[in-house]
Design brief:
138 residues, alpha+beta, six-stranded mixed β-sheet, 2 helices, 6 strands
Length: 138
């Protein structure tokens, strides 16, 4: 079975719902444009794709996620909660999809704070995924 990009976005969105994390597909700048956001919030930006061999159905996607929470008085606790949110989302995304999606090269995490209009605490997560998708030149 193959996955297309929309399937991957849907899988991450579903994983967020299972993890009690709100989901938005778009760009971090859009967080300020809509008010009354519910947190925690995961913003999935459009991925970049590459095909090492366009005659095979293996696609490498570089994905960037922004995971936000409203800050409390303890930055240490905020980051701990964000890491737990991320762990749940990733677990729910990749569980039962081992043969269709794999993380390639690890996960990079940058911790940020005092961002957006709501002075949010966040994680910028970059991961490279190998996906069993379409054959580009079939």
């Amino acid at each position: 079975m193959t996955f297309n990009y929309e399937d991957i976005v849907t899988q991450i969105s579903t994983a967020c719902g299972l993890s009690a994390v709100n989901f938005m597909f778009g760009y971090p700048s859009e967080v300020n444009q809509k008010h009354n956001r519910q947190y925690p919030l995961l913003v999935l930006s459009p991925a970049t794709s590459s095909f090492a061999n366009p005659f095979e159905n293996e696609e490498q996607l570089s994905m960037q996620m922004y995971l936000y929470r409203q800050g409390t008085s303890s930055l240490k606790a905020d980051y701990k909660n964000l890491m737990e949110d991320l762990r749940k989302v990733l677990k729910n995304t990749f569980h039962n999809n081992e043969h269709k999606l794999t993380i390639n090269g690890g996960v990079d995490i940058q911790r940020i704070n005092d961002v957006q209009n709501d002075r949010l605490v966040g994680l910028v997560v970059t991961l490279n995924i190998n996906a069993h998708t379409i054959c580009l030149l079939d």
